[in-house]
Each structure stands twice: as C-alpha cells, then as structure tokens.
Design brief:
This protein is α/β, with parallel strands linked by helices. 27% of the residues lie in helices and 34% in strands. The protein has two helices and six strands. The strands form two sheets. The chain has a three-stranded parallel β-sheet, with no helix packed on it. Strands 2-3-5 form a three-stranded antiparallel β-sheet. The longest helix has 12 residues, at 74-85. The radius of gyration is 14 Å and the shape is globular.
Length: 86
C-alpha cells in the first residue's frame, strides 16, 4: 500500500534520512509500519539537527519538497494560496 503525507512540518535531510519534529515523526512512524511506500510532501529546510528531531523509520520514502506554508487560519490559507499562484 502507498501512503502520502502532506504536512507543513519542516523537514531536514541528513545522510539520506528525513528528520522532523519528534512527536510528529513518532506518530507517523506508527502509521508507516503498515505501508510499503510513503511519499512526503513538506518543506525541506537546511538546518542543524538537534534533540527535538527524529527520523522516519521506513526504507521506501519519496520526498517532494514544497515551499513553507501556513494554513492555520483563513487569512493564512488565502496568503498560502496566493503565494503558490506565483
């Protein structure tokens, strides 16, 4: 089964692994135990890893980077939509 994650959580690529906010990644890793392949659509940033980051535990990850976005309010949804139209 294929699974797609679309998220605003920033990700970091380090040594061919993808890292993000640990509590979020732990939750996703629970779901990923049951899929063969995962596609992650999320912002990819250049940043140093720190203890708040954790990696995905899956061996078939396809990562599709997108610009950072915020859809936490109607205003931010509108701004994100306009930004992606450019």
């Amino acid at each position: 089964m294929k699974f797609t994650i679309i998220t605003h959580v920033e990700h970091i690529k380090h040594q061919n692994n993808y890292f993000g906010y640990a509590p979020y990644i732990r939750e996703m890793n629970i779901w990923l135990k049951y899929v063969n392949e995962v596609t992650i659509v999320a912002p990819l940033v250049t940043s140093a890893l720190n203890p708040i980051h954790e990696k995905y535990l899956h061996n078939m990850i396809h990562f599709k980077p997108v610009k950072e976005f915020n859809i936490t309010s109607l205003k931010n949804i509108f701004i994100t939509f306009l930004d992606y139209q450019r």
